[in-house]
Design brief:
20 helices, globular, 6-stranded mixed sheet, binds coenzyme A, alpha/beta, Methionyl-tRNA Fmet Formyltransferase, Chain A, domain 2, 558 residues, 3 domains
Length: 558
C-alpha cells in the first residue's frame, strides 16, 4: 500500500511505524503537519491508499479525510478522548491503558474505531511509557487496522465515551492547576506521579529557589530532616527536596521566568544557588553491577544526552570497572535510550556553544577510546532503548552490539546541520558494515530498525526479549560467551587485531581527521550545525518536510 504518515514531527513512534511499515513492503512517505494546504498538496502528490497520523495536534482537513481513509493513533483506550490521554492515565493511577486507532472525522478522536490495544501500566514517566508500551501497542493496532482495511469487509464501529461497557472517557487538557504539587500534602508517590505524568512536555509548574520553573526527571530518595517542600541538598546535578514522607531528587527543570529557557540539569539552570547547597549522597546517574565474570555499567542519562561532565564521569566509571577482575564488560546505557550522543541542550546553554561542543565531543571520544583500547576483556553494548548519532557510535566501539528487538537506531549525524561526527566512526563503521558501503549508512538519514541493523552488520544479535527481560537475557549470553572454551583464543585474536589495526593506522589518526572536520562544523563559516541545534533544542516547528522523508516531493517521484 502507499501509506502517507502525517505527523507533527518524525518522533520515536513515527520512526518505529515507518520502519515497521517499510519492512512489510509498504511504500511509505512522510509529511509534517504544517498547514492544511501543505497536507492537501502532499496527498495530491503521493496519492496514498491510506493516511496514518501517529502524532498530531490538529485536525486533518476535511478535504483530505473525506477523500481518503485517515487513521489516527490515539494514546488512550477505546472511548478515551482528549489531548492529555496518557497524562491523565498516569496521574489517575490507571492499572491498564491502551492505544486506539480511529478514523479521522470533523471531531477529534470521535471517529469509528479500527483497532484498539491495551497494556498493563508501569510506574514510569510519560515519555518512558510512550516510547515503550504505547509504541508497541500502536504498532500492533496500526498493523491490525491496515489488515482490516485491506480485507475490505471490516466495518469500524463508533464508540461513545462512557457508554455501557466503555471505560474510556472524554477528558480536557490536563492543565497546570491540576498538575500542581501540594508539597504540604502530597506524599512522595504523588509527587513522583505528577512529575512523571508531565515528563517530556510540559513539566510541572512549581518553583525552585523562589523562581517559577517546570520540573522533570524526579526519583525517590531517602528521607531528609527538612520541612516538606524545602530544597535540602544537592547531588550529581540534581537537588534533593523533602516531601511529607520522604524526599525526591529532581534532576532537570526549565525556568519559567525567562523566555525560551531550555530544560537543563538543575545545577546549570540555577548554578549559583545549587552550588550553595550542602552535598548529599544517594544520587547516582551511573551505576556499576557485577554478575560473576560480567560487569555491567548502567548510564541512564536523561534523554540519552551525554554532557561533557557526564562523559568524564562515565570514563571514570569505565576505568574503575576495568580494574575489576571480570571478563566481559556490558555497556547498558539506560532503559529509555542507550545514548543520543553529546548534550545539545547543555551546549546550547553554554556561553560559547562552539567551545562546549568541542569539549563535549572530546570527552565523548575519550570514552570511545577507552572502550576501543580495552583488549583484556570483551565489551558488549546492550541496547535496551534507542540510540542516535554519537550514541550509536559509542555502541559500535564495543566488540559486540546486542539489541532488543524493537529498538530504533539513527546511525548518522547529518540531520544535525550536516555534522561530520566523531566517536571514531571512520574506524568502527567500515569494520562493521557487512552490506553496502559504510558511507551509505551515514548518508541515509532515516531510522534503522533492529532487523535491518542486523542485516547491515550494525547489530550482532537481536534479542527478542521484552524490556523487563532483555538485560537478564544479555547476562545469560555474556556469561555463555566468557565461559566458552575458546574465550582465551577470542581475547588473543581481539588483541592481535587491535595491534594490527593500530600498526596500519593509529586510532589517533582517525580521531584527528574526524575532529578536524568537527572543528569546521563548530568554528567554520558554515553555521548549519548551530542553526540545526538551536532549532532542535528550541523545538522550532518545521517549516517544511525534509526530502529524505517526503519521498513524494522528490524530483521524478510518482
Ligand atoms: N542532546 C540533548 N537532548 C536530546 C538529545 C541530545 N543529543 N537527543 C535527544 N534529546 C532530547 C530531545 O530534545 C527531547 O527532549 P524533551 O524530553 O524535552 O522533549 C528528548 O530528548 C527526546 O528526543 P526526541 O527527539 O523527542 O526523541 P525521539 O526518540 O523522537 O528521536 C533522535 C530520537 C535520536 C532521532 C533525536 O532525539 C535526535 O535527533 N537527537 C539528536 C542526536 C544528535 O544529533 N546528537 C548530537 C550529535 S552526537
Amino acid at each position: 500500500m502507499r501509506i502517507l504518515l502525517l505527523t507533527r514531527s518524525f518522533n520515536s513512534l513515527t520512526q518505529r511505524l515507518y520502519v515497521e511499515l517499510a519492512t512489510r513492503g509498504h511504500e511509505v512517505s512522510v509529511e509534517f503537519d504544517i498547514a492544511d494546504s501543505v497536507t492537501e498538496e502532499a496527498v495530491a502528490l503521493f496519492r496514498p491508499d491510506l493516511v496514518v497520523a501517529p502524532f498530531l495536534k490538529r485536525a486533518i482537513p476535511e478535504s483530505v479525510w473525506r477523500a481518503h481513509l485517515c487513521l489516527i493513533v490515539h494514546p488512550g483506550i477505546v472511548g478515551d478522548r482528549g489531548p492529555s490521554a496518557l497524562d491523565w492515565a498516569i496521574q489517575d493511577g490507571e492499572a491498564e491503558w491502551g492505544v486506539t486507532v480511529l478514523q479521522a472525522e470533523a471531531e477529534m478522536d470521535a471517529g469509528p474505531v479500527w483497532a484498539g490495544e491495551t497494556f498493563p501500566m508501569r510506574a514510569a514517566t510519560k515519555s518512558s511509557l510512550y516510547r515503550g508500551e504505547v509504541t508497541e501497542a500502536a504498532v500492533r493496532a496500526v498493523l491490525e487496522a491496515i489488515e482490516r482495511f485491506a480485507s475490505g469487509s471490516f466495518v469500524p464501529q463508533r464508540v461513545a465515551p462512557g457508554a455501557p461497557g466503555v471505560r474510556g472517557r472524554s477528558r480536557p487538557l490536563l492543565k497546570q492547576q491540576a498538575r500542581a504539587i501540594d508539597w504540604q500534602r502530597d506524599d512522595t508517590a504523588a509527587v513522583l506521579r505528577k512529575i512523571a505524568a508531565a515528563d517530556g512536555v510540559p513539566g510541572v509548574l512549581d518553583s525552585l529557589f523562589g523562581v517559577p520553573c517546570f520540573l522533570y526527571d524526579a526519583h525517590p530518595a531517602a528521607a531528609v530532616p527538612a520541612a516538606a517542600g524545602s530544597v535540602a541538598a544537592r547531588g550529581g546535578r540534581a537537588v534533593l527536596r523533602a516531601t511529607t514522607d520522604g524526599a525526591v531528587w529532581i534532576g532537570h527543570c526549565r525556568r519559567a521566568d525567562r523566555d525560551g529557557a531550555l530544560k537543563l540539569p538543575v545545577a546549570l539552570a540555577f548554578a549559583g544557588q545549587w552550588q550553595q547547597l550542602p552535598p548529599a549522597d544517594g544520587y547516582a546517574e551511573i551505576r556499576y553491577a557485577e554478575h560473576g565474570p560480567v560487569g555491567v555499567l548502567h548510564f541512564p542519562f536523561y534523554n540519552g544526552a551525554m554532557s561533557t561532565v557526564q562523559c568524564e564521569e562515565l570514563l571514570a566509571a569505565y576505568r574503575a570497572a576495568l580494574a575489576r577482575p571480570t571478563r566481559a564488560l556490558v555497556l547498558a546505557g539506560g532503559p529509555e535510550f542507550f545514548s543520543n550522543g553529546i548534550s545539545l541542550t547543555v551546549i546550547e546553554a553554554a556561553d560559547s556553544p562552539a567551545d562546549e561542543s568541542w569539549r563535549n565531543i572530546v570527552a565523548m571520544d575519550e570514552v570511545c577510546r577507552a572502550v576501543l583500547e580495552t583488549t583484556d576483556r570483551i565489551t558488549v553494548a546492550a541496547l535496551q532503548g534507542n540510540a542516535g548519532a554519537g550514541g550509536c557510535f559509542l555502541a559500535f566501539a564495543c566488540d559486540r552490539v546486542w539489541a532488543r528487538a524493537g529498538v530504533i537506531l539513527n546511525p548518522h549525524y547529518k540531520n544535525m546541520g550536516n555534522l561530520y561526527g566523531s566517536e571514531y566512526w571512520t574506524y568502527t563503521l567500515p569494520r562493521r558494515v557487512r552490506q553496502g558501503e559504510p558511507r551509505a549508512v551515514m548518508e541515509n538519514r532515516l531510522p534503522v530498525g533492529g532487523a535491518q541493523a542486523a542485516r547491515l552488520g550494525l547489530v550482532d544479535r537481536l534479542l527478542d526479549a521484552g524490556r523487563d527481560r532483555f538485560l537478564a537475557q544479555v547476562l545469560v549470553e555474556a556469561r555463555a560467551l566468557v565461559e566458552a572454551a575458546d574465550f582465551d583464543t577470542l581475547i588473543a585474536a581481539k588483541r592481535a587485531r587491535r595491534a594490527a589495526d593500530e600498526a596500519q593506522r593509529p586510532l589517533a589518526a582517525y580521531r584527528d581527521e574526524e575532529l578536524a572536520n568537527m572543528r569546521r562544523n563548530f568554528y567554520g563559516f558554515d553555521p548549519s550545525y548551530h542553526y540545526a541545534r538551536a532549532h532542535f533544542v528550541g523545538k522550532v516547528p518545521h517549516a517544511w518536510t525534509p526530502l529524505h522523508l517526503a519521498r513524494h516531493r522528490r524530483k521524478g517521484a510518482v
